[in-house]
Amino acid sequence: MDYDLWQICADVTVVAKEAGKLIRNAQPTASTTKSKKNTTDIVTETDQAVEKLIRERLTARYPSFGFVGEESSKAGSEITNQPTFIVDPIDGTSNFVHGLLDVCVSIGLVIDRQPTVGVVYNPFHDELWSAVRGQGAFTSRHGSPMQKLPLVSEPLGGLTSACIGIEWGSDREGPEFDLNLHVFTTLARTQASGGRFVNSLRCTGSAAIAICRVAAGQQEAFWECGCWAWDVAAAWCILVEAGGAMVDGYPDNWDPAIDNRRYLAVRPGEGQREFVREFWSVVESGMRS
Fold first, then answer.
1. How many CA atoms within 13 Å lie on the side-chain side of 148?
2. Helix (H) or strand (E) segment spanning residue 48
């Protein structure tokens, strides 16, 4: 069946901006975050309210489509070939709690398990990223005209000149966390001490925003192992349509599944495969140690 993907993207954008208003109006302040319990309650209530709004709007407009949301779906929920909206109502919840502004609504549509439409919206900066498969990716801020991505498209150098996004995640023990530590320290250390001495490492606190910045060419890469499909589905479409690449966070899988949970996003530009191989060599060295 053929779908009007541009119309779907337009409808999703309207819903994302409506959801963004809820988020902007609900962000905790110093007066509402006196206890961890209060903060947790606010985040949970807002997450659920935003996802409920998104679900109601999209299922009313597209009743035959599936829906997978962070708040309403169990971890590991199966994503089928059915057209399915994959939604993170608030990506960047820790930022949201602490009054930081890297927070977004992330709504992706996958068809045959392939990212097909992506909309990521930051309500605090009024910043929008969107894409339709085969039609390019675009961004706008404060209502400005849409700009085609990437904003920067120079050849990729090696790791030493790269700005790389990373995240610590919430699971901070066990072999996977040990591998994360190895990768982070190897990227950061000087070459004289056995590292790669990358130009900079960035923790954005939102996988979707970080990947969109990679799509724009503002960062060379983003690497995270342990996030879920709702963290990446929308931004994945934006990245690929901008000319970027999404590969497995672990070596040698150039075509990861949407629910792979390990991702390396690389910006547009010549030299992607060489960059990926160099990054994978860091991961592989940690897997051997």
1. 6
2. helix 36-61
Higher pLDDT, 109 or 286: 109
Which token pair is 87? 């939604």
Torsion sign (Cα): 245, 204, 91, 6: negative
Binding-site sequence positions for Mg(2+): 70, 88, 90-91, 231
Q: Which pLDDT value is given to residue 33?
A: 47
Task: Tell me the pTM.
Answer: 0.94
Catalytic (active-site) positions:
70, 88, 90-91, 93, 231
Reply yes or no on whether the pLDDT at 30 is more than 50: no
Write down the pLDDT at residue 29: 60
Contacts of 13 (CB under 8 A, 6+ apart): 119, 121, 128, 130
Q: What share of the chain is helix, strand, coil (3-state, %, to 5)?
A: 40, 20, 40
Report pLDDT digits (tens) over 173-201: 899 999 999 999 999 999 999 999 999 99
Write the single-letter amino acid at 173.
E
pLDDT reading at 37 higher than 60: no
Q: Report whether 118 contacts 237 (CB < 8 A).
A: yes
- Note whether 51 and 71 are within 8 A (CB): yes
Six-digit token string for 256 = 């990861």
Give the residue numbers of the binding site: 70, 88, 90-91, 231
Helix (H), strand (E) at residue 205: none
Q: Which residue has the tokens 């409506």?
A: 18
Q: What are phi and psi of 152, to 5 degrees?
A: -130, 130
Strands of the sheet with 245-247, listed across from one edge: 200-202, 163-166, 221-225, 262-266, 245-247
Structure tokens at 20: 């963004």
Distance CA 141, CA 139 (A): 7
